[in-house]
Amino acid sequence: MGGTAVVVGGGIGGLAAAIGLRRAGWETTVVERGGGPDDAGAGISLHANGIRALDALGVGTAVRAAARPQYTGGTRTPGGRLLTRMDGAALERESGTPIVGIPRAVLHRLLRTALPAGALVGGAEVTSVDRSDASRVRLTAGDTVLDADLVVAADGVNSRLRAQLFPGHPGPVHSGSTVLRAITESPVELRTDFELTWGRGAEFGHIVFADGRAEWHAVFNSPAGVRHPDPLAEVRRRFGDWHDPIPALLAATRPGAVLHHDVNELVTPLPSYAVGRVALLGDAAHAMTPNLGQGACQALEDAVSLAAALRAGPSVESALRRYDAERRPRSQSVARAARRAGRMGQQLSHPVAIALRNGALRLAPSRVTVRAILRHADWTPPRPD
Questions:
Q1: Within 10 A of 245 (CB to CB), how many other CB atoms are there?
Q2: Confidence category of residue 237, pLDDT binned at 50, 70, 90
Q3: Helical ranges in 57-103 per DSSP H
Q4: Would you state the pLDDT for residue 365?
């Protein structure tokens, strides 16, 4: 089965969906509102399930070559005391691949490279979707009208298409946290590939890239919409006296490079990821908090599963029902687990609760951490019937 498809949104999930659809025989166009995602100046960790999805899309080898494996790391207190150790080698033995870190801009570039010239249409914001014709879907983007046999809504946490398809859904809500993050301007000497530090209602973490630069993120409890005139100065105020190498990471950062986003999520799960000939994918379907590092990985799973379902057919509607049945239970379960992880991790602020959590973490063997990661990363791409 094939036809014409329009993917709305040119982020990781949208680009991956377009690659998968083209490999399944669909003529696919990606419509992107801006010049690129607003998080392109950040980094990302990809777990085994994300890497397997990229392999299924034919870009896994290129991503591995550009990424850095994460073998060393763990979780610490602000004073530097180790709470848990991440055994990256054990993870690789169990899953067949290590967790890897890569700049988002590099991942976006590799995904775009896998698409033919002209497949991406930039500067076009989809303003409406018309499903009155049961055999086609019509999208309006400014003065442009696009007709397609299939539409993939991959337009992010604030998805306009989701709001039109589910007008009674409350949409995304603020998680109670905000994140400031940046990539260092130059390489930084670091003792670990990956690290998290938990304080009272706050988290600081870093991942190292293949070129020696690092991405850091600072997450803390905050009302929505609060912005700081000098974001880097605010991070220094909150985290500057935490253990090394946090001061060094901040010192290697250009002030203008700091991104600031409130962490929003879909707390109310969608009743379906498919409406007629429209499929929802990635954050548009299941925006989750970043506490498990699974947001992009789940979007990549979506992309592979959608393409496999459409290969199997026999119709677009039946394929999308299969996609929904496969993806909605798993991705919504991961989203709930991410929310729980945030409440017990970064968002925890009561001193007694923090002391109890830290004590439990110090006593847990490293294999417990490995099992916790594998619980969500254990996924194999589907085989079409």
A1: 19
A2: very high
A3: 60-66, 88-95
A4: 87
- Contact criterion met (CB below 8 Å) for 307 and 180: no
- Give this prediction's pTM: 0.95
- Cα–Cα dist 351/200, whole Å: 7
pLDDT range class, residue 384, cuts 50, 70, 90: low
CATH superfamily of 4-70+98-172+265-345: FAD/NAD(P)-binding domain (3.50.50.60)
- Reading the block at residue 367, the tokens are 């294999």
Q: How far apart are CA 15 and CA 110, in angstroms?
A: 10
Q: Alpha helices of the chain — where are they, by DSSP H? A: 12-23, 48-56, 60-66, 88-95, 104-113, 160-165, 231-239, 246-251, 283-286, 295-312, 316-344, 351-363, 366-377
Residue 4 contacts residue 150 (beta carbons within 8 Å): yes
Best CA proximity match to 1, nearest among 369, 341, 320, 381? 320
Buried b vs exposed e over 83-116: b needs ≥16 C-beta within 10 Å?
bbebbbebbbebbebbbbbbbbbbbbbbbbebbe
Cα separation of 154 and 12, whole Å?
9
pLDDT digit string, tens, across residues 269-321: 999 999 999 999 999 999 999 999 999 999 999 999 999 999 998 999 999 99
Q: Angle CA(299)–CA(279)–CA(377) in degrees, nearest 5? A: 25
Question: Which tokens sit at 354?
Answer: 């923090």
- The residues, any chain, with a CB within 8 Å of residue 342's CB and separated by 6 or more, are 175, 177, 289, 291
Amino acid letter, residue 336: R
3-state secondary structure of 197: strand
Q: And the tokens for 292?
A: 């498990």
DSSP string, 342-371: HHHTTT---HHHHHHHHHHHHHS-HHHHHH
Q: What token pair was written down for 182?
A: 């940046």
Burial of 218 (0-12, 13-18, 19+ CB in 10 A): buried
Note whether 293 and 377 are within 8 A (CB).
no
